[in-house]
Amino acid sequence: MFAYCADPSTLQGFAWLTCYLTNGKHLIAYTSIGTVLLLLAITAPTALAFGFGGAIAARSRVAPVRWFGQGYTAIVRGVPDIVFFLFFVIALDQALEWLRHKALCPDWDEPIRQGSDFVVCTAAKLPLSASPQWVHEVYGFLLAVLTFAIVFGAFAANVLYGAMRAVPTAQIETAEAYGMTERQSIWRILVPQMWVYALPGLSNLWMILVKATPLLFLLGVEDIVYWARELGGTKGVIFEYPHPDWRLYYFLALLVFYLSLTQFSEVVLRRLSVKLSRGQATFAGERQRKATT
Amino acid sequence: MRTLIITLATTVAMAGSAMAQDVVRLGTEGAYPPWNFINDAGAVDGFERELGDELCKRASLNCEWVTNEWDSIIPNLVSGNYDVIIAGMSITDERDEVIDFTAAYTPPDPSTFAAVSDDVDLTSGVIAAQTGTIQAGYVAETGATLVEFATPDETIAAVMNGEADAVLADDSFIKTALEANGDLQVVGDPVALGGGVGMGIRESDTELRTKFDAAIDAMKADGSLNTMIEKWEVSSKW
What we know:
A: flat, B: alpha/beta, D-Maltodextrin-Binding Protein, domain 2, 2 domains, five-stranded mixed beta sheet, about 40% helix, about 25% strand, globular
């Protein structure tokens, strides 16, 4: 990065450290922070949408829809995350490739399963082996987002389902007495009021999601925990910047990163909680009302 | 969700429109110097990087490097995420049941124990090895207590901080580790394990295996493989 970094073996002290911390490997590691934040930014709303859909489905008066909603939460919440990540993602990937195979290579005569091998025609590979590495990475990343969304969506569905039931029935009855349809009473009365009851549960889920990102590496996405382990490991003379086992320092940096992320989330969630409690028939809402009058 | 579908669709479309040329994806671990490691520029480097590039050139294949965790390196080959494992993987009967191997590119070499003190009891002590390696299999069969780690680097760290009495790994990896850790020393007698190191290839991919076999044989014949082995000090020569 800097001009004086050309020959690292001649460097000492601070100059060595600046060169070390800006070598190609570290620059890649810094971008993985962005990967993690991007994953959180995409996954959180997607999981919330999955959860909302699940909760609405679980409340439905149509029996099959209700079974679907309840089955989704029950199954996903019961299966260990790591099983879900290893099995579901490989199965999903193979299902997509199988569909493309059926569509793109109709005259393929070999079996798809040969012993333990899963063989589809070259044109059906997802992504194609010929596509550049970043396409493979984006694909893996999207699989990760989808898996996280399904897993955390199931938990969110349960939280939202409970929150919907916590909204006082009198409110819904009043809405119906005013002549609102069921749909109107859901969107105008139930949904705006349920968030305050859902927030504690959802904030827990958010914190768990923040800490679950190292599972990314199971899907081949290199996240910050992978890089901390890789960069901190003992580096012999074969490397340009040899150093002993520095994992402690790298993991301390991770600690600082995760603690600041948690602290930041706490602040945002506290403000959100104050905002959502306004005018609500809860303790917090009542306290706000008294404070202003 | 809608954005997700759109992005997914775009990715699929892009993947579909890319040119269909012969690309062979080489999967490695990137954590086992001097065999394979991630260099300071963030790229795959080491003996197997140089060997793999040379073999691809000789077989006129267009190769691309990917890294994968050791634990899931065989399942991901079998499900088609990459086409070749080139990660210092010894040829064993158990692995041969699931995947195929090319001809060995390094001869069978003994594995070495390393420890901090030289009075370690290798038959009843605590021995560290990487999960799913021939060394881990060997330690499990002796009377010693096996502790397994996901990465090779962690096995060395376990010995350095006293969690394990000794570590068992390939001789060349131990030598590299000795250079980086002053207190570490070779202990006991080396043990002969495995049938040499080869590239792992899907059993259904016979064509690719034949190409690499021919390239490996050619490199053995003209001595360039020996030069490479000598340069990286990974094993004995052919």
